[in-house]
Design brief:
Length: 319
């Protein structure tokens, strides 16, 4: 009886402590890990999250870029961090849903080592080719690949654009070479320098180069055309059933106290409803895509199932 009583007191004390922690959190600077390089769409939305949380919670939120290994370096850092709410991850399609099927081993389990806080945004992808290749449509790209097997190359910097391009080239029976990069901005630089032929990248990085005429937009990966790219058809018109949207969410280490997660989620959902947040995302080619912890957990599971099927269909072999 005495043991049960002591356990009861301990549980009550812990509950009170966690509640108090949630009410006073954050009492110091918070690190936001972005597992991609500066200038990427993940970095852009990560810095917007830092601004929103800093405004709502009156504390310093600092972005730390930890790119590499298909986002698993940054993902692993957060997964193994102290579960106190002072280390956050800007998770994405890549680090949560896709990478388990693209790498033979990763240093964390996305659905169990990380807890979802809130979904924060999304980005469509767009198939682009270097302008001097002289290709203006998906059909022309496919014809060129069939006539010149092995000559075209495409790049990828994360699981999303790797899976997207691999599935397209597999479905269209294109004999091409894949080139890995550490970040999408580096892919764009190589396309502008005529060292890379095409790729499927986020609209954030693609839009300025398309507007300048340095890259040619061939198709978007959304189900419907995008207003900012008039005349550019969905890739689904060429590859039946093709649809892809990149997404982002805030995650914390597993076992982070619920009051802390609730504090972060409440601040994020409030901040994401702000006109400034929506305007900043629109300027960067991103779109709002809010959801709370429960919805993001369910969404992450469904996206993981989707990527398992997508990788199998594209005949991608884990590296």
């Amino acid at each position: 009886m005495r043991t049960k009583a002591l356990l009861g007191v301990l549980a009550a004390t812990l509950s009170i402590s966690l509640t108090a922690h949630g009410e006073t959190y954050p009492s110091g600077p918070v690190k936001i890990v972005v597992p991609f390089s500066a200038g990427s769409s993940t970095d852009i939305i990560g810095r917007e999250v830092a601004r929103v949380l800093g405004t709502e919670l009156h504390q310093s939120f600092v972005v730390e870029n930890r790119p590499g290994a298909q986002a698993t370096i940054g993902g692993s850092q957060v997964a193994h961090a102290r579960p106190d709410g002072y280390t956050l991850l800007i998770g994405s399609t890549t680090s949560i849903a896709a990478v388990p099927f693209l790498l033979k081993q990763i240093p964390y389990k996305p659905l169990t080592d990380l807890q979802p806080v809130a979904r924060i945004g999304a980005v469509p992808f767009i198939l682009v080719a270097r302008a001097d290749l002289g290709i203006k449509t998906v059909g022309e790209l496919v014809d060129y690949a069939h006539k010149h097997p092995g000559k075209l190359n495409w790049g990828y910097a994360n699981a999303a654009n790797r899976g997207a391009a691999a599935m397209m080239t597999h479905e269209l029976k294109m004999d091409t070479a894949a080139v890995p990069y550490t970040g999408v901005p580096q892919m764009v630089i190589d396309m502008l320098g005529n060292r890379l032929d095409f790729g499927i990248i986020d609209t954030t990085n693609a839009a300025p180069q398309i507007a300048s005429g340095k890259l040619r937009a061939l198709a978007v990966t959304s189900e419907d055309p995008l207003p900012q790219f008039p005349g550019v058809p969905p890739l689904g018109k060429t590859v039946k059933g093709y649809s892809l949207l990149g997404w982002y969410g805030v995650y914390v280490p597993a076992k982070t106290p619920k009051p802390v997660i609730d504090t972060l989620a409440k601040a994020l959902l409030k901040g994401m409803d702000n006109a400034d947040y929506k305007a900043h995302l629109a300027h960067a080619g991103l779109i709002p895509y809010p959801a709370g912890p429960k919805e993001l957990a369910e969404f992450g599971q469904s996206e993981t199932r989707k990527w398992a099927q997508m990788v199998k269909a594209a005949d991608i072999h884990p590296q």
